[in-house]
Amino acid sequence: MRRLHTAVLLAALFAPSTATARTTGAAPALSPALSTSAATDTAVFEVPRVEVVGRRDHLRRIPGSASVLDARSLEASRVLSPNEALRKLPGLVVRDEEGFGLRPNIGMRGLNPTRSTKVTLLEDGIPLAYAPYGDNASYYHPPIERYESVELMKGAGQVLFGPQTIGGLVNYITPAPPARPSGSLSSARGNRGYAAVRARLGGYRALFDYSRKEGEGAREHIASELDDLNLKAVVTPALVVRANAFRERSRVPYSGLTQAEFERRGPRYNPFKHDRFDLDRVGGSATHRLALGRGALLTTSVYASRFTRDWWRQSSTTTDAQGGPGVAAARLAGEALDADTIPSVQGRLRAYVTWGIEPRLRWTYDLGGASAELLAGARAHVERQDRRQINGASANARTGTLVENNLRRTRAASAFLAQRLEIGRWSVTPGVRFEHIHSERTNRLPGDAHGSDALSRWIPGIGVTFSPARAVVAFAGVHGGFAPPRTEDVITGSGTATDVGAEESVNWELGARLEPAPGAEVQVAAFRNDFRRLIAVGSVAGGSTPLAEGEALFVGGEVAARLRHRSGAHARVAWSWLPVAAQTTPFRQVVGGAVVAGSAAGLRQPYAPEHAVSAAVGFEWRGLDGLLEAVHTGAQAADFANTAAPSADGQRGRLPAHTVWNATLNAALGTSGVTAFASVKNLSDRVYIVDRTRGIQTGAPRTALAGLSYAFGAAR
């Protein structure tokens, strides 16, 4: 890694300045769920892709809240992880875990962020999660460096995507291949073993992108090495293909800390030095665009991926009994553990294969003098999960007793239809989505139990916009919220179907987008999400938390504002306010119907802070670009009972509010295309608790880094 890092530094310093004319690049976004155009810049091929927001002028047509985090913002703040990037957007609470954002926990508008199960994640409009229907849990996330922009949509427009429509969707946009030879190289090093290199080379309808990262995590004995390789090519003006490979090798535990460990051993303590996480993912996709004439455009995407994950760990929670009663007692007392003396390890071994096809039709036409747009599409999607658990008899064992051997299959068929009608300053877009999901589960241990279940739902929505002036767009909408249950929740290991149903809600939204002055943008939104059924986190992989469901209500508001003055000063803020995040009925266990301990109507939902704020101020002057950022997360409850005092096992207790400061400085070195940068994350080295689900998890300590980047050709 050190040799590669040095080579990139030398290339950035001494590469010849042979760049062609500088280009501005693609506009950061897409048309409402349907556009297939990428950049219009002559240095970039126009490539077909499914977009969610589109260019900024498309925001005027979207009947709901929508935001774009563009390449300029990502680059200027030198984001280290997807978590850091997403916190810049309104309505999100993004929880750290191991320190690199490799297992993102994204919550929207008060929904529990654990494993991002309430969110739809897309890449160029194509499902990014390895099992969005049968197991929508994020144990994988590509490096944020892969993307040039991030789109966020909430509100009625979600019915054009899915299957999750209860929170919102995030769409990551990869760069379009350049027409002329161009690219960039970057390298950075920092404390805590941080090192990163990236090479992006393109031209002649193709783009090659490679990045590598390594560094230490939030606690002792946590470290990760990541390699990400991407290829994107325009085969014909109507066809783009993509291929990617991702590899992670990490030392990372699953269990958090007990209260005594946190107090006596410190927030960075982690005794499980032998825990290992190995992940490999390969995927490919193609998107084809076909003009059907008379304003009709058919965009078809096909995709497939294989994901494997082996997580060997000696403890899953602070109450895990796998190491024996002596281990659990020692942890509760805060005594130091020697992992070598714990004669057990569990291997949670997973393999997922996912593929699908999704055609989307957009037809623009006139209807009695009014502008009309018909949007329609369908998806066929297949998932296969192979899940095994092996229990070993020593800390480093990789063989042992097979205690779980499950095959789970999910087949889904969906379709959507929406009609947009624009009359004067008004537009109205009613739409509907249909989802049909068939799940199967086979226990391949002796007995060969098998079960299956099917679920179908119609998901309606309607959105309205009104533009009384060029700089003002008001929007309102209501839509059905839907999220399918996991295969393992709907079918037990014995093959029996449970009574758990889909998550269902009615979601209302009202807001406006304003441009009060040149360089200023403001979006405000109010929302009310009323859940007839909300599924509580059931499996904590070692489990003490039963699968539960109940009714809930979330009411709040959001503000997102950006200002860029001609003097070079700039600022932004994203504020989320959630005064109501209530359990409106007690949550009950799906099996047996017993009320979950402590749950009662009127109590606040766990992991739903009232306030979340990300704010930054910066300047640009003579090649310098500086930024100071504050990220505030309000206090949170960790359990249904809203327990204030910390429990001995660390799994309950109030999570105090905290604010983290980040600072970045970029310096362009003349006209050479070289930029020097330095960044510090968590400036004050603040210690704060981010999660108690499996015990106390803490945020990453201060990380300082510095590096060089070099851009050439059309990339400058």
How would you explain this protein's 3D organization?
The protein has 716 residues and is mainly beta. It has a single domain (2-713), classed as Maltoporin, Chain A, CATH 2.40.170.20. Helix content is 6%, strand content 50%. The protein has six helices and 32 strands. It has helices at 2-14, 71-77, 82-86, 259-264, 325-333, 487-490, and strands at residues 66-69, 92-95, 105-108, 119-123, 126-127, 149-153, 168-173, 182-190, 195-203, 206-216, 223-236, 239-251, 276-293, 296-313, 345-367, 370-392, 401-423, 426-443, 450-469, 472-483, 503-514, 520-536, 548-564, 569-583, 588-589, 611-621, 624-633, 658-668, 674-681, 689-691, 697-698, 703-713. The protein has a 22-stranded antiparallel barrel. A five-stranded mixed β-sheet has the order 1-6-7-4-5. Strands 2-3 form a two-stranded antiparallel ribbon. Strand 18 (426-443) and strand 19 (450-469) form a beta hairpin. The longest helix has 13 residues, at 2-14. The protein starts with a helix and ends with a strand. Residues 6-42 and 538-543 have low confidence and may be disordered.
CATH superfamily: TonB-dependent receptor, beta-barrel domain
Strand residue percentage: over 45%
Regarding quaternary structure, how should these chains be classified?
A: single chain
Structural class: mainly beta
**Major sheet summary line:** 22 strands, antiparallel, barrel
Overall geometry comes to globular
First-residue to last-residue Cα separation: 27 Å
CATH class: Mainly Beta
Tally of discrete structural domains: 1
Based on the structure given, which CATH architecture is correct? Beta Barrel
Looking at the structure, the CATH topology is Maltoporin, Chain A
Count of beta strands: 32
Return residue spans where pLDDT drops below 50 for at least 5 consecutive residues: 6-42, 538-543
Average pLDDT number: 90
